[in-house]
Design brief:
Layout lengths: L1 E6 L9 E8 L4 E7 L5 E5 L5 H11 L2 E6 L11 H8 L3 E4 H6 L3 H11 L9 E3 L4 E4 L2 E7 L8 E5 L2 E5 L17 H12 L7 E4 L9 E2 H7 L1 H4 L6
Protein backbone atom coordinates (compact mmCIF):
# COMPACT_ATOMS: atom_id res chain seq x y z
CA UNK A 1 0.00 0.00 0.00
CA UNK A 2 1.17 3.51 -0.82
CA UNK A 3 0.04 6.37 1.37
CA UNK A 4 0.32 9.86 -0.10
CA UNK A 5 0.32 13.01 2.00
CA UNK A 6 0.40 16.68 1.03
CA UNK A 7 1.12 18.40 4.29
CA UNK A 8 -1.04 21.53 4.24
CA UNK A 9 -0.97 24.44 6.63
CA UNK A 10 -1.49 28.18 6.76
CA UNK A 11 2.19 28.98 6.32
CA UNK A 12 3.69 30.04 2.98
CA UNK A 13 3.93 27.53 0.13
CA UNK A 14 7.63 27.05 0.76
CA UNK A 15 6.75 25.29 4.05
CA UNK A 16 4.62 22.61 2.39
CA UNK A 17 5.94 19.20 1.45
CA UNK A 18 4.69 16.17 -0.46
CA UNK A 19 5.31 12.85 1.29
CA UNK A 20 4.73 9.40 -0.16
CA UNK A 21 5.07 6.49 2.24
CA UNK A 22 5.29 2.88 1.06
CA UNK A 23 5.84 -0.27 3.12
CA UNK A 24 8.31 -2.66 1.47
CA UNK A 25 9.38 -6.23 2.16
CA UNK A 26 8.72 -8.80 4.85
CA UNK A 27 10.11 -6.47 7.52
CA UNK A 28 7.60 -3.77 6.50
CA UNK A 29 10.23 -1.09 6.05
CA UNK A 30 8.77 2.33 5.36
CA UNK A 31 10.41 3.97 2.35
CA UNK A 32 9.66 7.64 1.72
CA UNK A 33 9.56 9.95 -1.26
CA UNK A 34 9.76 13.56 -0.04
CA UNK A 35 9.19 16.26 -2.64
CA UNK A 36 9.16 20.05 -2.80
CA UNK A 37 5.83 21.00 -4.43
CA UNK A 38 7.31 24.12 -6.01
CA UNK A 39 10.33 22.64 -7.77
CA UNK A 40 9.52 18.90 -7.78
CA UNK A 41 12.99 18.29 -6.38
CA UNK A 42 13.01 15.52 -3.82
CA UNK A 43 14.76 12.74 -1.94
CA UNK A 44 14.27 9.05 -1.29
CA UNK A 45 14.63 8.00 2.36
CA UNK A 46 15.56 4.39 3.17
CA UNK A 47 14.98 2.57 -0.15
CA UNK A 48 14.26 -0.93 1.12
CA UNK A 49 14.21 -2.75 -2.22
CA UNK A 50 11.36 -3.18 -4.71
CA UNK A 51 13.03 -0.51 -6.80
CA UNK A 52 10.40 -0.63 -9.54
CA UNK A 53 7.73 0.40 -7.04
CA UNK A 54 9.89 3.28 -5.83
CA UNK A 55 10.62 4.40 -9.39
CA UNK A 56 6.89 4.31 -10.11
CA UNK A 57 6.28 6.65 -7.16
CA UNK A 58 8.91 9.02 -8.50
CA UNK A 59 7.37 9.01 -11.99
CA UNK A 60 3.86 9.53 -10.65
CA UNK A 61 5.00 12.63 -8.83
CA UNK A 62 7.25 13.76 -11.71
CA UNK A 63 9.94 14.20 -9.06
CA UNK A 64 13.61 14.98 -9.66
CA UNK A 65 15.60 13.13 -7.03
CA UNK A 66 18.61 14.91 -5.53
CA UNK A 67 19.72 12.44 -2.84
CA UNK A 68 19.17 8.96 -1.47
CA UNK A 69 19.14 9.37 2.31
CA UNK A 70 19.71 6.53 4.78
CA UNK A 71 18.58 6.90 8.39
CA UNK A 72 21.11 4.17 9.26
CA UNK A 73 23.16 1.41 7.70
CA UNK A 74 21.15 -1.74 8.41
CA UNK A 75 20.71 -3.79 5.27
CA UNK A 76 16.90 -3.82 5.28
CA UNK A 77 16.90 -0.03 4.88
CA UNK A 78 19.49 0.18 2.10
CA UNK A 79 18.62 -2.68 -0.25
CA UNK A 80 17.60 -0.29 -3.03
CA UNK A 81 20.59 2.03 -2.72
CA UNK A 82 22.77 0.57 -5.46
CA UNK A 83 20.19 0.16 -8.21
CA UNK A 84 18.49 3.49 -7.58
CA UNK A 85 21.84 5.26 -7.40
CA UNK A 86 22.75 3.94 -10.85
CA UNK A 87 19.37 4.70 -12.43
CA UNK A 88 18.91 8.15 -10.90
CA UNK A 89 22.59 9.20 -10.89
CA UNK A 90 22.37 10.63 -7.38
CA UNK A 91 24.56 10.20 -4.28
CA UNK A 92 23.79 7.88 -1.38
CA UNK A 93 24.07 9.68 1.97
CA UNK A 94 24.71 8.26 5.45
CA UNK A 95 25.93 9.66 8.76
CA UNK A 96 29.67 9.53 9.30
CA UNK A 97 29.42 7.23 12.34
CA UNK A 98 27.60 4.51 10.40
CA UNK A 99 29.91 4.92 7.40
CA UNK A 100 32.78 4.15 9.75
CA UNK A 101 30.93 1.45 11.68
CA UNK A 102 29.85 -0.54 8.62
CA UNK A 103 33.31 -0.30 7.07
CA UNK A 104 34.46 -2.86 9.67
CA UNK A 105 34.45 -6.38 8.20
CA UNK A 106 33.68 -7.98 11.57
CA UNK A 107 30.68 -5.68 12.03
CA UNK A 108 29.41 -6.54 8.56
CA UNK A 109 29.81 -10.26 9.17
CA UNK A 110 27.87 -10.09 12.43
CA UNK A 111 25.18 -7.82 10.96
CA UNK A 112 24.73 -10.17 8.00
CA UNK A 113 24.16 -13.06 10.43
CA UNK A 114 21.63 -11.04 12.43
CA UNK A 115 19.63 -9.72 9.48
CA UNK A 116 20.29 -12.35 6.83
CA UNK A 117 21.08 -9.59 4.34
CA UNK A 118 24.30 -8.20 2.81
CA UNK A 119 25.95 -5.09 4.32
CA UNK A 120 25.54 -1.63 2.75
CA UNK A 121 27.84 -0.34 0.03
CA UNK A 122 29.95 2.70 0.98
CA UNK A 123 28.07 6.00 0.97
CA UNK A 124 28.89 8.74 -1.54
CA UNK A 125 28.16 11.64 0.80
CA UNK A 126 28.94 11.62 4.50
CA UNK A 127 26.38 13.39 6.68
CA UNK A 128 27.15 15.29 9.86
CA UNK A 129 24.91 16.20 12.75
CA UNK A 130 23.23 19.56 12.32
CA UNK A 131 23.86 20.00 8.61
CA UNK A 132 20.99 20.95 6.32
CA UNK A 133 20.51 19.69 2.77
CA UNK A 134 18.78 22.15 0.47
CA UNK A 135 16.31 20.41 -1.87
CA UNK A 136 14.24 22.92 -3.77
CA UNK A 137 12.59 25.06 -1.12
CA UNK A 138 12.98 22.31 1.48
CA UNK A 139 15.65 22.28 4.16
CA UNK A 140 16.38 18.75 5.38
CA UNK A 141 18.11 18.85 8.77
CA UNK A 142 20.25 15.93 9.91
CA UNK A 143 19.74 15.06 13.60
CA UNK A 144 22.14 12.44 14.95
CA UNK A 145 20.23 10.00 17.18
CA UNK A 146 22.56 7.08 18.01
CA UNK A 147 21.36 4.03 19.87
CA UNK A 148 19.89 1.68 17.25
CA UNK A 149 23.20 2.04 15.42
CA UNK A 150 26.08 4.45 16.15
CA UNK A 151 25.18 6.60 13.14
CA UNK A 152 21.40 6.53 13.24
CA UNK A 153 19.83 9.84 12.30
CA UNK A 154 16.44 11.47 11.97
CA UNK A 155 15.66 13.86 9.12
CA UNK A 156 13.60 16.96 9.97
CA UNK A 157 11.70 18.51 7.07
CA UNK A 158 9.23 21.33 7.71
CA UNK A 159 7.78 19.87 10.88
CA UNK A 160 8.06 16.26 9.71
CA UNK A 161 10.55 13.95 11.41
CA UNK A 162 11.65 10.81 9.56
CA UNK A 163 12.85 8.67 12.44
CA UNK A 164 14.11 5.46 10.84
CA UNK A 165 14.53 2.88 13.61
CA UNK A 166 15.11 5.45 16.34
CA UNK A 167 11.41 5.88 17.12
CA UNK A 168 8.36 3.89 16.02
CA UNK A 169 4.68 4.45 16.72
CA UNK A 170 4.45 3.15 20.29
CA UNK A 171 7.94 1.64 20.36
CA UNK A 172 11.62 2.12 19.48
CA UNK A 173 14.15 0.26 17.38
CA UNK A 174 15.98 -2.81 18.61
CA UNK A 175 19.14 -2.29 20.61
CA UNK A 176 20.21 -5.94 20.83
CA UNK A 177 21.76 -5.86 17.35
CA UNK A 178 25.43 -5.11 16.73
CA UNK A 179 26.15 -1.48 17.62
CA UNK A 180 22.92 -0.98 19.54
CA UNK A 181 22.66 0.49 23.03
CA UNK A 182 19.40 1.16 24.87
CA UNK A 183 20.80 3.85 27.19
CA UNK A 184 22.21 5.72 24.20
CA UNK A 185 18.91 5.43 22.33
CA UNK A 186 16.94 6.75 25.30
CA UNK A 187 19.36 9.67 25.60
CA UNK A 188 18.85 10.46 21.90
CA UNK A 189 15.09 10.44 22.37
CA UNK A 190 15.29 12.63 25.46
CA UNK A 191 17.76 15.20 24.16
CA UNK A 192 17.20 15.24 20.40
CA UNK A 193 13.65 14.09 19.66
CA UNK A 194 11.03 14.82 22.31
CA UNK A 195 12.38 18.36 22.71
CA UNK A 196 10.97 19.16 19.26
CA UNK A 197 7.50 20.78 18.98
CA UNK A 198 4.73 18.41 20.02
CA UNK A 199 2.93 18.79 16.69
CA UNK A 200 5.98 17.49 14.80
CA UNK A 201 4.81 14.56 12.66
CA UNK A 202 6.61 11.25 13.18
CA UNK A 203 7.31 9.11 10.10
CA UNK A 204 8.80 5.82 11.35
CA UNK A 205 11.06 3.35 9.61
CA UNK A 206 8.71 0.37 9.99
CA UNK A 207 4.97 -0.22 9.85
CA UNK A 208 4.84 -1.76 13.32
CA UNK A 209 2.42 0.56 15.10
CA UNK A 210 -1.32 1.05 15.25
CA UNK A 211 -1.06 3.85 12.69
CA UNK A 212 1.48 4.56 9.91
CA UNK A 213 2.44 7.89 11.43
CA UNK A 214 2.20 9.79 14.70
CA UNK A 215 3.27 12.99 16.43
CA UNK A 216 5.83 13.74 19.11
CA UNK A 217 3.01 14.86 21.40
CA UNK A 218 1.24 11.53 21.02
CA UNK A 219 4.41 9.54 21.59
CA UNK A 220 5.20 11.54 24.74
CA UNK A 221 1.81 10.52 26.10
CA UNK A 222 1.62 6.92 24.86
CA UNK A 223 5.03 5.46 24.01
CA UNK A 224 6.18 3.36 27.00
CA UNK A 225 9.84 3.91 26.19
CA UNK A 226 9.24 7.62 26.74
CA UNK A 227 6.66 7.53 29.52
CA UNK A 228 8.34 4.77 31.56
CA UNK A 229 12.04 5.10 30.82
CA UNK A 230 12.47 8.86 30.32
CA UNK A 231 9.65 10.89 31.86
CA UNK A 232 9.27 8.77 35.00
CA UNK A 233 12.96 8.92 35.91
Amino acid sequence: MVLVYLIKDTRPLKNKVIIKQVSIGSLQVHTYLVVCPQTKKGVIIDPAGDEDKILSLIRDEDAHIEYILNTHGHADHVLGNSKLKDILSVPVCMHEADVLFFSDNKVNEQSAKELGLPPPDPADKILKDGETLEVGSLGIEVIHTPGHTPGSVCFLVNGNLFTGDTLFVGAVGRTDLTGGNLDTLLESLEKRVIVLPKDTAIWPGHDYGETPTSTIGREIKENPYITDFILSS
